[in-house]
Write a structure and sequence with these properties.
Blueprint: E1 4-12, E2 23-31, E3 36-45, E4 61-64, E5 68-69, E6 73-78, E7 85-96, E8 98-105, E9 110-121, E10 129-137, E11 145-146, E12 156-165, E13 179-185, E14 192-200, E15 208-209, E16 220-230, E17 240-245, E18 248-253
Antiparallel strand pairs: 1-9, 2-8, 3-7, 3-9, 4-8, 5-7, 6-7, 10-16, 11-15, 12-14, 12-16, 13-14, 17-18
Amino acid sequence: MALTRSLQGTSNNGSTDGTVSHNGTLDCGTVTNGGVLIVSAGGTTYNSSLGTPPGTPNLPTKNSGTATIGTAVLITSAGSGPATAHVSAWEIPITGSGTLILDTTDNGDTYGYAYTALMYTGQDPTTAIAGAVAQTSGAANLSNSTLGATPAADDETVYVVNWDTDPGAVGVAAGTNFTSRSDQGSGSGQYIQMQTATRAGSVSTSTTVVYGTQDGTPAVFTGAGIAFIVKAAATDPTGTMAVTQDAQTMTATGTYTPPPVTAIAGLWNSGRRRI
């Protein structure tokens, strides 16, 4: 089964008031049993020491819906401390199909958070996520990252980047060979600018991650970025083979090895010669 991805939902709790908690929800639509949700969050902490670390988001939990899910597991995060950009991502197994709305809250003292949910099916059932890396920057753009594992052509690489900006920052240009799946923040009165992007196919076999960039207008103070691999399930090695016998064709599974031919004394072939 090939790896598939769909954008399930986004939410934006951005605010100019950094002294309050932001409690919201993320509508993930209809999710599929056996798949996995990748939920990412980006925000900017306030100039205070509240929170542990200050202003980071809590694990997403189910608010309502008919779907069932497992416990969210943090993939990785980057950025902590007062007045800095922060980004996190979680892996949430889907154990039953249906509709799903998640609670999205932080532990206080932020300029808000933006959330994105991607759903994957056809992922590796044992290790869906690999090679996670994280970094921060005090400048407008982040340096390239090197993944902690080498993706296969069937895998997909994901990055999530966020900046602490002044309100009205411009959009983000996706990194080399990446396609943006969600851009949030940068609106009037918002101090966050977050992008989630993916890379697939032959270009995804590179371990180098080039994050999205922006020109720093009107002002960019800090940045945070994470990247990881979503692993595709192994291809089923079982093939098919056509076997013809008595003018009838049947389909067999696997590899056919003919038995050795053994001469049996005393038998005659059609030419009336003794074998």
